[in-house]
Amino acid sequence: MKTKYSAEFRLEVVQYQLKGHSKVEAARKFGINPSSAERWLVLYGQNGKDSLDNVTRYAEFDLDFKLKVVLSVINDGLSLREAEKTYNLRTKAVITNWLHQYKKDGINGLQPKKGKHRLLKQPKQIEPEQAKIDKSKTQDELLEEIAYLRAEVALLKKRRALRLESEAGAQKRLLKSSQN
């Protein structure tokens, strides 16, 4: 699991905020997003210094953990923000994804996927019988499918833009630090 910022760096940002500086001031000084500064401060407040070691960009969670989080949201009425903080998760989007998978496929939807995830699935060859079935779709179903595909394309474009923006920001910080 790779982290973008070291635990020492996160702790430095938190200590700066504890001295009375706002998350925006900390973000400007350290060249980070204000939401990251806020999240690290909350994690530090909840679980102390050790919680800053566990903030990861990419993490795999087992079935039991995912189920525990999902059921706490569904049964206990925990909000996404509360669940994110309680279970020390990076974003609410992870929980939203798990909830969607759970509602769609039950516990099986939360099973860890094997192998590398592909951003786009390989197109399947359509059998002649399957083509006939597609012709029977109603106009509403087709419009719904188009809307879904457009949303998927928009999401992929947004992911790419965010990745490029993040890489550009990292390069700027590297240039700044090498000039100093």
TrEMBL record:
Family the UniProt entry places it in: Belongs to the IS150/IS1296 orfA family.
Record flagged with keyword Acetylation: no
Keywords: Plasmid
SUPFAM superfamilies assigned: TrpR-like (SSF48295)
Domain Insertion element IS150 protein InsJ-like helix-turn-helix positions: 9-54, 65-116
Protein name: Helix-turn-helix domain-containing protein
Protein origin, superkingdom: Bacteria
InterPro entries assigned: InsJ-like_HTH (IPR055247), IS150/IS1296_orfA-like (IPR052057), Trp_repressor/repl_initiator (IPR010921), WH-like_DNA-bd_sf (IPR036388)
One Pfam family cited in the UniProt record for this chain: HTH_28
Classification lineage: Bacteria, Pseudomonadati, Pseudomonadota, Gammaproteobacteria, Moraxellales
One MF annotation (Gene Ontology) recorded for this entry: sequence-specific DNA binding
